[in-house]
Specification:
The complex is a heterodimer of chains A (148) and B (109).
Chain A lengths: L7 E7 L3 H9 L1 H8 L7 E7 L6 E7 L5 E12 L3 E8 L9 E11 L2 E9 L14 H12 L1
Helix pairs in contact in A: 1-2
Chain B lengths: L5 H10 L2 H10 L4 E2 H5 L6 H13 L3 E6 L2 E6 L1 H33 L1
Antiparallel strand pairs in B: 1-3, 2-3
Helix pairs in contact in B: 1-4, 1-5
The chains are: A alpha+beta (148), B alpha+beta (109).
């Protein structure tokens, strides 16, 4: 993945090693525990994970309004414990968003802490967009302000 | 959260091109004719017109006519939708990382 072609990029530094966090993200028994933590209203209903390149996952969840959604996708990269890349879409044909790509990186930042970085790209062809990227998310903000 | 939209695909597809992003960045500073837009780029006017058609279809640019001259302006609609998509998913993933963080803290305490 190159430069600033990201649609969405969020990160947290968490006091745990990369192994622990990678497992929390990829073991369904762990995933259902943390995904349903109170807070933003999302709850986890079910998880099935076939953790290998080309393997699929299904994550059932309810949104803050109580509606159920099933996220589906296929693992593109599985590099324990550093990196996880998977496609992301919704199962309901009416809600399809097309192929989007999520990358989760686990970076050791020392002192038994790990930075977890989630990048969600709206389109999978981002990789061929070239290296000389200006941040188009920033452009989007600029444009949004311009049009008020 | 769940937005079904071919238009969003078109919008983000349109944004994936460097020349088209540069055109949009230029239009932030005000409307322009096709000729004015073509000037800073080393491409022909037909090539710029093609980019503009893509931007128009994506709901990012509007074209209006003044006599024989067509003027281009930013289109608020497509932009807002794209920005909303980004905001929604940012909030979603922020929420997930918060949840992961709390889960790990609780497990360790």
């Amino acid at each position: 993945m190159t430069g600033a072609v990201h649609a969405v990029r969020v990160s947290r530094i968490i006091r745990a090693d990369a192994d622990t966090l990678f497992r929390a993200w990829t073991d369904p028994r762990e995933l259902v525990h943390w995904w349903r933590q109170e807070g933003d209203g999302w709850a986890f209903a079910s998880a099935s994970i076939d953790l290998r390149v080309g393997g699929g996952y299904r994550l059932g969840m309810t949104d803050p309004d109580g509606k159920t959604h099933v996220a589906i996708g296929v693992y593109r990269e599985v590099q324990r414990p550093m990196r996880l890349v998977f496609t992301w879409d919704w199962e309901d044909p009416a809600n399809r968003v097309g192929d989007t790509l999520v990358t989760v990186e686990f970076k050791n930042v020392g002192d038994s802490r790990t930075e977890v970085v989630v990048t969600h790209q709206r389109f999978t062809e981002a990789a061929r967009m070239g290296r000389h990227e200006q941040g188009w998310t920033e452009l989007l903000r600029l444009l949004e302000r311009a049009v008020g | 959260m769940v937005t079904s939209s071919r238009r969003l695909d078109r919008t983000f597809g349109a944004l994936a091109d460097e020349t088209r992003r540069a055109i949009l960045a230029r239009l932030v500073h005000g409307d322009a004719t096709v000729g004015e837009l073509a000037r800073p780029f080393h491409v022909s006017r037909p090539a710029i017109s093609k980019h503009l058609r893509v931007l128009e279809r994506a709901g990012l640019v509007q074209r209006g006519r003044e006599g024989r001259i067509s003027r281009c302006a930013l289109d608020a609609g497509g932009m807002r939708e794209a920005a909303e998509w980004v905001d929604r998913y940012r909030a979603f993933w922020e929420g997930r990382l918060d949840a992961l963080s709390r889960y790990i803290e609780r497990r360790q305490s």
